[in-house]
Amino acid sequence: MNNNKGPEKTGLIPADLPVVYRAGYVHYVIGILTVVYVFNFMDRQILSILMQPIKQEMQLSDTELGFLSGVAFALFYATLGIPIARLADQYSRVNLITICLGLWSLMTALSGMATNFLQLLAARIGVGIGEAGSGPSSHSLIADYVPVQNRSTALGVFALGVPIGLMVGFLVGGWLEQNYGWRVAFLAAGIPGLLLAVLLRLTVIEPKRGHSQTEAQVIHADQPSIKQVAHHMRAIRTFRLLCLACALQAFAGYGLIQWLPSFLSRSHHMTSGDIGLWLALSIGAGGALGSAGGGYLADRMGKKDLRWQLWLPGIGGFLGAPIAFGILLPDSSNTVMFFVFLHAIAVNAYLGPAFAVTQTLSPVRMRALASALLLFMINIIGLGLGPQMVGILSDQLAFAYGQESLRYAILTGCMAYLGAAAFFALAARAAREDYRRAAVLEVD
Is the pTM of this model over 0.90? Predict the structure, then answer.
């Protein structure tokens, strides 16, 4: 591994010569960061497969479950992501990811030891705090390892962490809950992450800022402040519209995915083991096709017109709304799973392109913080409000629909996909001019 550290480490040749990382090592870095992202989503989303037994044991309402899985996690995850990303633009991103991974893994394990709502709430807040520093730091690292023409593909591969994390969380969580209980499921999800943190720290090198750039950029001599970065990114119309599009996409998606296991348990009377198995297969396979395929197609089609990096997510979002009817209205669980598979393909196609557009629009010293701003919108509106809205609406509709109230609450939230598609289309209209001006940092 030391052979990849570059000539400036040897003292034999000038330190200003460019470092060359072998393709195999770059692939390894993307791979291990993707595995970290798998643990990120597995530890975050495993709660969804465990909500029904937790609800029964602790006698919680859907509103309380929505708060536990949405607002309580997202509030800390999103807000702390910004100052941690600021640190990532100044200090070692590898060290930050290592610390954050260790923290959220420990708190996931502690979730299994909770005996009441407040203890479980505190543990989930801890998971949110730990996970806050992973995504932006990873995006920034990948952008420094991978040039712009391949960045959507690389970040699309990284985005595989979402469906794979969901797949593992559903499969392992469902099986462990059915056979050993929900507490064991939390412990089994948290402990391996502590070992992964050690491996990451020992094997991943911190690259020079802007390592992959092929064009000169105007970079502020000092590290820009959070206010300066926010001002710069807010001035980019494409980025503003992208944030709104991704937030609505996440609002619908998190509202569905967090509550889908509970819906299948209540309306289709499936066991935790069966829910975990079928969701792992449908979401895992479909999400992998959507994430990797979306990034690959965005790079391929973007060579002719960069706006495909936004048109493609818009098409996926537009398809999400009608597909939701196929998930939530049929009585056949086989039909439901088929549409879950299609849904995972369509709505996950935005991940790689959205991350790549953000990295392309932001100067080198802003990349982690720019990602944090995008993730702030995604997680406050999407992860925070999506599940919470579904939980509140389900409790309100229970007077009219009884056990089936959750079905219609989720379906209502999925209509936000149409708004997401509209904002992706508007962002594409602004993108061409914004790409030309992307790499210049303007400070008042």
Answer: no
